[in-house]
Write a structure and sequence with these properties.
Blueprint lengths: L16 H31 L6 H32 L1
Helix pairs in contact: 1-2
Length: 86
């Protein structure tokens, strides 16, 4: 018998919403944490915008979001490999 496909209920062939949510919630928390961390330099940059000091804080916020995107991508690949092996 072939292995069951991830996120598919083997009984009736529909999408297993419980498994989808079990995987989506930790990913959403991971992404949300990076968004919250990036919000701080953006807020500081917004407050310092008239003085011209907003540029370094904007770059820092972009860097945090770029690192967060990379971490989220690595997490997705690692979880996908783990799920495929199960």
């Amino acid at each position: 018998m072939p292995p069951s496909a991830p996120f598919i209920d083997s009984r009736d062939g529909t999408v297993d919403l419980v498994q989808v949510l079990e995987e989506a919630i930790p990913l959403a928390k991971l992404i949300g944490s990076f968004v919250l961390v990036a919000f701080v330099p953006y807020a500081i940059g917004f407050l310092l915008a008239p003085s011209g000091l907003a540029i370094p804080f904007t770059v820092l916020g972009q860097f945090v979001l770029a690192v967060g995107a990379g971490v989220a991508l690595i997490y997705c690949v690692a979880r996908g490999r783990t799920i495929a092996e199960e």
